[in-house]
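Annex B, item 7. Sequence and C-alpha cells for protein A, then protein B.
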Amino acid sequence: MSTSNDHGLSEFGYRQSLDRSIGKFASFAAGVSYISILTGTFQLFYFGFGTGGPAYWWSWPMVFVGQIAVALCFAELAARYPVAGSVYNWSKRLAGRTTSWLAGWMMFTASVVTLASVVLAYQVTLPQLWPGFQLVGDGSGAHDFAISAVIWGAVLILFTTLVNAFGVKLMARINSIGVFIELIAAVLLVVILAVNVVRGPGVFVDTHGLGEGHTGGYAGVFLVAAIASAYVMYGFDTASSLGEETVNPRRTAPAAILRAVIASFVIGGLILLFAIMAAPDLSDPRLGTSAGGLQLIVLQVLGGPLGKVFLGCIVVAITVCALAVHTAGIRLMFAMARDNALPFGVRLARINAKTGTPVIPAILIGAVAVLILVVNIGTPEIFTAVTSVAVVMIYFAYLLVTVPMLVKRLRGGWPGRDAGGHFSLGRLGLPINIVAVLWGAGMAVNLAWPREQIYGSGPLRWMALMFIGLVAAIGLAWFRLRGRHRLGTLPEHQADRDNRLVDELS
C-alpha cells in the first residue's frame, strides 16, 4: 500500500485533486444522510401502509437482509478501491470497459433522479408543519400538491447546488450537523412512541384485507408496498464515493458503509414499529395519503407543539439527504469525466482553485434535477413514479458491480492479492455475493413492473422501463460510437511519476 501523501490514490493512476478533509464521523454521516432514516420512512410510509396495511412492516427486515448483503460486498470493494465515483471505479476493476461505463452512467443518472425524488419530501412534511407552506391552492386540487412540491424541490436543489459549489468542508459541516440532529431526533422519537403504544405486536399480521381480489393475493400487494422500504436503504456507497476526500479511507469507508446501513435499519425499523403500535386509529384513511401518513401519527401521538418540533427535524433530515445525494452525483460525474468518459470531460473534471470542488457538475446536476420535476409537474403520481424510477436505476447500477464481482469469485479472481489487512469477507464472500445478486435482480424487476398504483394509468405505467431503456440506449450509443475511443485519464489528473514508483515498490 502506498506511503505517499495521496493516500494511495496514485496506485490507480490519479493525482490528489480534491480536498482531503473528511473524518470518520463525516464519512459515516454521508452514508447515513443519503439513506436518511427520517426522510425515507416519513416520505413513503403512507404508500406502504396504504397499500399493504400494518403487515407491510415486514418488508423492512426483508429489504435489510438483501441490502446488507450488497453493503458487505461494497465494504470489501471500498477497502480495495477508495476512489471517487465508487460504483463506476469498482466496476471498472471487475468488468470490461462497456460494463463499467454503463454502471457509472446508470448510477449517475440515478443520482440525478434520486435528487429529484428526495426533494419532493419537503411537500409531504412542510404543509403539515404549517398550512401556509402549501404554495398552490389548498392542496385539494388535482395538481396543487404536485406543483407546490416542484416549487419547494427547486428551492432545496438551489441550496444544495450552492453548498456543493462552495466546497466539501462546508458540505461536510452542514451534513454532519444535520445527521447529528436527525439521529438524536430519531432516537427520541423511538422512545416517545414506545411509551405511547396502544396495541400489541399482533397488529403486524393485520393486512386490512388489502390482498382480496388482487392478483397473487396479499403477496402481490406486499411486493408493491415494499417500495416504501426499498426506497430508504440504499446510497450507502456514498461514504466510499467520498474516498478521495476522506482521511484513511481504506479503513474509514468500509466501516461507514456498514454502520450507516445497520443504524438505519435498527432506528428506522423501530420508528415504524412503534408508530404503528401507537397510532390512535389505524383505520383513519388519512394514514394512507401523502397529506397524512407517518407525520399525522407523530402529530396525533405527540400533540401539536412537540409533534411539530419533530416535523422540523424531518425537514432538516430531508435537507441533508438531498445534500448528500447531490454530492454523490457530483463525485460520480467528476470520476467519469476525469477518465474522459463523458462529453466535455475536461470542463466537467475541472476543480475550482478556491473551493477545491468540481463546480460545473454541481450546477449541471441541479439544473437537470429541476427539469425532471418540471416535466412531471402534471403527474398526480409524481411521488411514487419518480421515486420508483430512481430506486430501480440504483438497483440496476448496483447489479453492474455485484454480478461482475460474483463472476470474479467463481473464476477465482477475487479477492486475489491481499488487501493489506483491511476489510474482507473471506469464505463468506461467495454466499453473500450470491444473495446480493439475487436480491438486486428480484427487486429491480419488482419495482420496474408496470403497476398502475405506482406509475399511474395509460402509457405512464411503462415509465420506468421506457426511461431506463432510453437512458441506457442513448448512453451506450454514444459510448460505443465515440466514447470508448477516447477513454483515458486526463493529463491534469494523472498521478506524478514519483508517486507511481512509490506505489509499485510498496
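Protein B:
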Amino acid sequence: MAAPEKPGKPILMRVGIGLFALGMIAVTAVFVMFAAGLENLPVWLSAAAGVITPLGLALGLIALVREARRKS
C-alpha cells in the first residue's frame, strides 16, 4: 500500500520562498535607507540582502528541479 502524497508545496520550496521574501524585505530596507540619505548602513542588513535573497532563490529552484524529476 503506497503512502498518500501530501498536497501543497514541498518544505524546501516553502523555505526558499520565505528566505527570498525576507531577502527582498532587506533589499527594500537598504534602498529606502540609502534614499533617505543614510550613508553608514548596518553591515548585517547589507549582508542579509546580499546572501538571503539568492539563497532563497537557489533553494526554490532546487525544489522545482527535484519536483520535476520526481514527477517524470
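Comment on protein B: The chain is about 75% helix and 0% strand.
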